[in-house]
Amino acid sequence: MSNEVFQLFAEGFWNTLWMSLASFAVALVLGAILAMMHVSPAPPARWAAQVYTAIFRNTPLLVVLVVFYFGLPKVGVSFEYSWQWALIVLSLYTSAFVGETLRAGINSISLGQAEAARSIGLTFGQSLRHVILPQAFRTVVPPVGTLYTALVKNTALTLILGFQELSAKTEDMINQDKAPVWVVVVGICACYLIINLPTSWFIHRAEKRAAFAR
Amino acid sequence: MSNQHSTVLFDALGPKGRRKVALYSALSALVVLGALAWAAVTLNGEGFFDQQRWVDALDQLIVENTYIPGLLNTLEAAGIGCVGAVVLGALVGFGRVSRFKAVRFLASVYVQFFRAMPVLLLIWIPFTVLNHLGTDINGLWYVVVGLAVYNGAVLAEILRSGVNALPAGQAAAGHAIGLTHGQVTRLIIFPQAFRNMLPAVLAQLVVLLKDTALGYIVTYPELLKMSYQTAGSYPNSFLQVLLVAATMYFVVAYALSKVVSLIDKRMRRKVARPAKAAAVPVAADVDTGA
Q: A3-213: which CATH architecture?
């Protein structure tokens, strides 16, 4: 593999990796806020979270990308770089799924746990910190990990914005005959496997641990 | 999560608590409405709500030549893709739970590999490579094959977990009364696994439908591609045309996922549970039903 091809792969790999990690970090924060809104006793907060979640869960990511990137500048919302759009759309989209997962995690704890915590006199904050969240956390780690692998794959869609991640690099390499096709195909598959296989292994381990802990 | 019941987080509220919640409700309603109003005013300033823009975007010409054919193409790709994915998923899925180690291994390599790949790549690498070599195939087939191969892997995994979720006693009981392996699979395991996994399979097929939007990349004229092209020739209604298309996707996917969750609720009652879970069936149902 020539040096230039390696350079292209490395660039694409790095861009995919940092974009997925950065948008995942933002999505976790937004998702946590959404989850709080989901379980809030105030109905308007719940409704807002439900509408947000329904919209992003039922619209294809590519459609969201196209509407945001090509459509929003028409109403005066624009950013200079395509990575900004990629980051915004990926985090907004993923946060809907994170919120749902966290909500399901909180709801998966049986009522008795919470009632027991309150009946021994723990305050709201204490029962959350010592009883509910530790259990919820263990339950949600595997599904949240799965969301990360999905996000890595979704990052590929940002090539339509011209963001130079792995899949965009492949097109360049194939179309400009920089390397034999098979080298490019094997290389790109290897890159995605390098990111995703360790993640799924970690998820698998976390699943087993969560199963033992009950 | 009504205020009359206690939940994981809150006890049933007393009069003071209810007043507090009413106050927070009013506050959060104000925040939500405020954000919406701000967005509306901003958009209005940019002429987003100009009547003409929406009338143009919903013009009969566009409806007949863009939205409807686009949606039909989307549904066609989704339909063929679903059939392919289910066939592949069944083949590989049964490979995953096969008695033979080699078959299990091959099936698991298939699943691991394709689940780690972006669907986009599976549609797009064949497209780029074949285009580069100068072969011209209808874009539909790139979409269908890519989606079938990827979702086949996902469905295979669903099938495997559907089979594995059954208590081991089910198969053991079948063998004990003298059924052959094939009979156990056909008469005992599969019917129950089918009920177990049907909701997950249907949910995945809805995802497949949404993913047909990737046809945009291989210039298959599905809803997104056609709307994007049309939008290009209506500079004043550009965003509006795209939003109509997005709404169509939303309506189809939302309706289908509601149907799936209905089926999910009905199917839940009919499958054998492990002995441990069976001791507390009520709690398990309450958690998932909420």
A: Orthogonal Bundle (1.10)
What residue spans define the domains of chain B? Answer: 1-48, 51-289
Interface size A-B, in CB pairs within 8 Å, comes to 173
Beta-carbon separation of B128 and A45 below 8 A: no
Put simply, the answer to whether B21 touches A63 (Cβ < 8 Å) is no
Six token digits for residue B154: 């996902």
Q: Give every residue of chain B whose pLDDT is below 50, as ranges.
A: 1-3, 277-290
Distance of alpha carbon B286 from alpha carbon B11, whole angstroms: 17
Whether the complex's predicted ipTM surpasses the cut of 0.90 = no
pLDDT digits (tens, 9 = 90+) for B206-230: 999 999 999 998 888 999 999 998 8
DSSP B53-98: HHHHHT-HHHIIIIIHHHHHHHHHHHHHHHHHHHHHHHHHHHHHT-
Q: At a CB cut-off of 8 Å and minimum separation 6, what does A98 contact?
A: A27, A28, A30, A31, A32, A34, A35, A144, A147
The CATH fold assigned to B51-289 is MetI-like fold (1.10.3720)
Q: State how far residue B25 is from chain A, nearest Cα, in angstroms.
A: 4
Inter-CA distances, A9 with A41, A82, A152, B261, Å = 49, 20, 16, 42
Contact A72 B210 (CB under 8 A): no
